[in-house]
Write a structure and sequence with these properties.
Order of helices and strands of chain A: HHHEEEHHEHHHH
Shape of chain A: globular
Largest sheet of chain B: 8 strands, parallel
Radius of gyration of chain B: 20 Å
Distance between the termini of chain A: 8 Å
Order of helices and strands of chain B: EHHEHEHHEHEHEHEEHEEEHHHE
Helix content of chain A: 55-70%
Distance between the termini of chain B: 28 Å
Oligomer: heterodimer
Structural class of chain B: alpha/beta
Strand content of chain B: 15-25%
Number of helices of chain B: 12
Number of helices of chain A: 9
Number of strands of chain A: 4
Strand content of chain A: 5-15%
Strand order of the largest sheet of chain A: 1-3-2-4
């Protein structure tokens, strides 16, 4: 099951996502390249996780070097989600959207929730998570399952735990 | 050519502080070094391969030297990774277990295992590594100076000159300059039959073992660079490369120890500043505030993780440094970064942005 934000995406962007969300860990850099977005690892101020901004005719994501790689991956997915859903918000400011560690940007909270849901779909595609969970762990969620799935999808344990709880409720 | 365009060979044990300090370096810093990692089981892992995973997470898509950590203390011979490590130390078949392990990990440039080997066996091991198409390393450790040094030299000299480096490891010392005689002696003596173009790394560490005498902000200078300068000036070798332990020390027998007093360590180009105060009961936060506010040595513009961690500590220890291990990780990070760019002016003005790699 995909989020309603995922279902809003159309055209070539949808093709790109559909093509890449078939294997894990999801190749975020490759998706970004195909969408025309560059990603830089950058030293950013304390408390900032990432940023997406327009530079001329293309878009740039900056992700904070001082955070763990798993965290950086979720941040990139979150900024890509902004690119896919909220381009007009990005374009309306020279600094684009800058997200703090709680993924709050000063923009309406709604857009951050939307970006988080789509980000989860991108880094932890539900059908893939479900497939691995059933094929390799008999569908049983334990601490070890969460840890193993988090490692495979290169996300934090906390993120995978939330993902699996959503799955359990679905 | 091995170590071409590299100016730094830090030797690092596989411990959390070292791996975190290495991991959070900018790619530009990593590109200037080839670390020598000492293989031992990674904490709580069930295979030795997890140790390689940890190294390659910290130092991805780059080659590194790998040696067996002979200072590692075996604690449980029923532990699978400890058993694996013990098997790598078996000399049978010219260390064939070691070669098989190396073969499975493509970024590894192995240190040739020379303990108890004849010249013929050493040649066999070198040829096996050459067959893999990998550069390799002769690592000579002062405290375990090999009694078959002549066989080692003969085997390496027979293997050509283009694809290996030599690490001379002085280990821990109070003063690196006090080891100058040893380094000079090995170079002029044992290494005289080794082609002068083969790079030689001079490595040792003087990171203090005890900190109880320090109070306030205390500089501890280290003389590794003077050592390298001195040996380079009197040697005919084409390349002498700077090495150290990334501000750490070799493993020691662990005894019972109290948690050390909270402190912050801050590396500069030629000194570590130790910030602690037992009488005034400084915690990490007050030590970090003292360093940043009053010491006069804080840079703050390096744009690297270690400085960020110390800065965060002044706001809230929990998001900065709240354990001795995190202090060491931040220190390793800053030290490695500064030594990778040693001699470069205006380090703070450099842009270390780099593209994301999947």
């Amino acid at each position: 099951m995909k989020s309603r934000e995922y279902n809003r995406i159309q055209g070539s962007a949808k093709d790109i996502l559909d093509r890449h969300l078939t294997e894990y860990p999801v190749k975020l850099g490759q998706i970004a390249r195909e969408l025309g977005v560059s990603i830089n690892i950058s030293s950013m101020n304390t408390g900032i996780s990432g940023q997406i901004m327009r530079e001329g005719d293309h878009y740039l994501i900056r992700v904070n070097r001082h955070e763990a790689r798993e965290r950086q991956r979720f941040t990139i997915a979150h900024e890509l989600a902004h690119f896919l859903l909220h381009k007009s918000v990005i374009d309306s400011s020279p600094d684009g959207i800058k997200d703090n560690v709680l993924y709050r940007s000063g923009e309406p909270e709604r857009i951050e929730y939307e970006a988080n849901r789509l980000a989860a779909d991108i880094v932890m595609p539900m059908n893939l998570v479900e497939k691995v969970l059933h094929e390799e762990f008999n569908g049983v969620v334990t601490e070890a399952t969460i840890e193993s799935l988090a490692a495979r999808f290169q996300v934090s344990k906390a993120a995978m735990e939330i993902r699996l709880s959503t799955f359990a409720e679905a | 050519m091995v170590l071409e365009n590299k100016n730094y060979v830090p030797t690092l044990a596989i411990r959390a502080s070292e791996m975190n300090g290495l991991e959070y370096l900018p790619g530009a810093s990593k590109d200037r070094m080839t670390p020598c990692i000492l293989l031992a089981p990674w904490a709580n892992s069930n295979t030795l391969d997890r140790a390689i995973d940890r190294i390659e997470r910290a130092f991805p898509n780059r080659n590194y030297f790998l040696d067996i950590d002979r200072d590692y203390q075996f604690t449980n011979l029923e532990s699978a990774p400890q058993q694996e490590l013990a098997r790598l130390m078996e000399p049978d078949g010219a260390y064939s277990n070691w070669i098989e392990f190396v073969e499975r990990h493509e970024w590894v440039w192995p240190c040739i295992q020379s303990k108890g080997q004849s010249e013929a066996e050493l040649r066999q091991q070198i040829e096996a590594v050459q067959t893999l198409g990998r550069p390799y390393c002769m690592r000579i450790v002062r405290d375990r100076f090999p009694n078959n040094i002549e066989e080692i030299i003969a085997a390496f000299a027979a293997g050509g000159a283009a694809d290996y480096a030599i690490i001379l490891e002085g280990g821990w010392t109070r003063d690196p300059l006090s080891l100058a005689v040893w380094f000079a002696g090995v170079i002029a003596g044992s290494l005289q039959n080794i082609d002068a173009t083969v790079p030689v790394v001079l490595s040792c560490t003087s990171m203090p073992k005890m900190f109880s005498a320090f109070s306030g902000v205390t500089p501890v200078t280290f003389s590794n660079h003077q050592l390298v300068d001195q040996i380079s000036a009197q040697s005919n070798r084409a390349r002498i490369v700077y090495g150290d332990w990334g501000s750490t020390r070799p493993r020691e027998e662990s005894g019972f120890a109290n948690r050390p007093l909270d402190r912050i360590d801050y590396p500069t180009d030629g000194a570590w500043y130790i910030v602690r105060n037992k009488d005034e009961e400084w915690d990490f936060e007050s030590a970090a505030k003292e360093l940043i506010g009053n010491s006069g040595v804080w840079d703050g513009n390096l744009s690297i993780w270690g400085e960020e961690m110390i800065y965060q500590t002044t706001i809230n220890e929990e998001i900065g440094i709240d354990t001795p291990q995190k202090n060491v990780a931040a220190r390793v990070n800053i030290h490695l970064h500064r030594q990778a760019f040693y001699g470069q002016e205006n380090l703070g003005a450099m842009n270390f942005d780099e593209p994301w790699e999947d």
